[in-house]
Amino acid sequence: MDPSERPAVVFDNGTGYNSESLRPILRLYLWYSKLGFAGNSEPSFTIPTVVAVNESFLDQSEQCSSANWLAQYNAGVMADLDFFIGDEALSHFKTSGLYSLRSPIRHGQVNDWDTMERFWQQSIFNYLRCNPEEHYFLLTDSPVSTPESRECMGEIMFETFNVPGLYISVQSVLSLSAGFAYLKTLSEEDSEDSVSDMTGVVVDIGDGAPHIVPVVNGYVIGSSIKSFPLSGSDVTQFVMQLLQERGELLPPDDALDIARRVKETYCYTPSDIVKEFKKHDSKPSKYIKQWSAIKPKTGIPYTIDIGYERFLGPEPCHFFSECLSVYIANAI
């Protein structure tokens, strides 16, 4: 069948996703991938972009001598086949000591192409259950990604999966087009020159590195893209560091998740930080909150105090907001 008659496969790699059932573990900040088909109202799958690899086969392959080439080959084949992705990878990592987690994406950009290829392979055949030779593919990429990175992405898709067609789009442009399409559905007037309306400045702030991307007629002005090395994940790490430096005994498996929940539930931005210190010192029972939970491995309940972290955690946002206003002004 002609691939144009089938819905295109959409891969959105390297974005953040907040869900109670998907939790970061062991200080490894997880990125999530959204998989689906064009035309659907929502993704078919939203899974962590991680791969669990069996370390025993990797060690066996390295320890085999060059003379015993057959054993080394078999160990390498098993290492290539015995891996899991997404929630299955997290489950095998926590229940078995044979697997190690690998995250191919850092700050929205791919830094491990072998692991990324394994992730795409499992996503296409085991999750979406489609033949890549019969569908066009749409992949998203970071605005600050290099041409070599996109060339490697296209090389894997064409040579490994033999896709008939591929389009790599910047995430910010897709965000602007989604907003434009939504406004078109609300408007009763059909504009004839719809392409010229795809112009704007996209401020992408989330778990990864924030970007300010100017878009004109659907095309990105690469020379005017501004990036800032501070995001929501860095604020979460800062809150976790404050809790640990104050002596709170955070379970290693849930430390990052607790810091994220503290940030989202209790943190606020004060107008005067000195007054906040005085208020917490004068009436600790009123301003200090408590977080109670159960350790996942031992089942023992524990409680931690949340004090200065409530207003010290968002402090990097002050500096971020000032730099952001300057970046937006320069982009415009």
Automatic annotation (TrEMBL):
<protein>
    <recommendedName>
        <fullName>Actin-related protein 3</fullName>
    </recommendedName>
</protein>
<dbReference type="Pfam" id="PF00022">
    <property type="entry name" value="Actin"/>
</dbReference>
<comment type="similarity">
    <text>Belongs to the actin family.</text>
</comment>
<dbReference type="InterPro" id="IPR043129">
    <property type="entry name" value="ATPase_NBD"/>
</dbReference>
<dbReference type="InterPro" id="IPR004000">
    <property type="entry name" value="Actin"/>
</dbReference>
